[in-house]
Specification:
two-stranded antiparallel sheet; 226 residues; 7-stranded antiparallel sheet
């Protein structure tokens, strides 16, 4: 049993995407097959740094950007790590635990201020297939990048004014400008126009064994884990 009620409440992180920054969309989380799995937990990937986390794919399920995907690692809490953590790594791991808490609160309709809410999960696979509203950010591009990548800046919960609208399939798409790729990028690369760009689905995902999302399951277990 994993009690996500022990996690701190999430903090929004910023970033410098092809979905305009600060847009609100509904996403589905899928746990991808680890490239290097934790022998004790098939859902958990061990990164090159030694940190344990979940290799996650977030797919927009409705609206103008339906089908757009975002790839991120969610790192497990410090108590579940097996290496000596730096202060920075400890912060990242606490942030990952808080992110998991927010996902459960959003999917189950739990108020973050309600201490009695059931935030328990039986395994990390309980997060697989959950749908929830999210605020989208963008990573700050570097010279040489070909794309400007989105990230999940915040999971919306019932405390957020737009929660019901987005959870019901609505969206809030901002007109925030997308950052330009710095000079020094390869020929043909540059600023990304707003709106869904051609070739969005061709953006290369981060390292992993699965290039495509697992088939949708009735149970919260990805096809590769069955």
């Amino acid at each position: 049993m994993i009690n996500l009620g022990e996690a701190q409440e999430q903090k929004e992180h910023g970033g410098a995407g092809q979905i305009p920054p600060k847009s609100l969309v509904k996403v589905r989380l899928e746990i991808r097959k680890p490239k290097k799995a934790d022998p004790q937990d098939a859902a958990v990937t061990i990164c090159s740094s030694g940190l344990k986390g979940l290799d996650c794919e977030f797919t927009v399920v409705s609206g103008r950007f339906e089908g757009s995907r975002i790839w991120e690692n969610i790192f497990l809490p410090p108590a579940m790590q097996s290496i000596q953590l730096t202060k920075g790594q400890e912060g990242v791991c606490n942030g990952g635990f808080a992110r998991c808490r927010a996902i459960i609160e959003a999917a189950r309709g739990i108020d973050p201020d309600d201490p009695a809410g059931n935030r328990n999960i039986n395994s990390w696979f309980d997060l697989h297939g959950l749908e929830f509203p999210a605020k989208v950010g963008v990573d700050k591009p570097k010279a040489g990048d070909q794309y400007v990548n989105n990230n999940i800046a915040k999971v919306l919960t019932v405390k957020d004014e737009e929660f019901k609208t987005v959870m019901g399939g609505g969206e809030v798409i901002t007109d925030e400008p997308l950052p330009e790729i710095p000079a020094g990028a390869p020929a043909g690369a540059g600023s990304v126009a707003s709106g869904p760009p051609a070739g969005w689905g061709q953006q290369a995902p981060p390292p992993g064994d699965s290039d495509a999302p697992p088939a949708k399951q009735k149970q919260n277990v990805p096809a590769w884990a069955q």
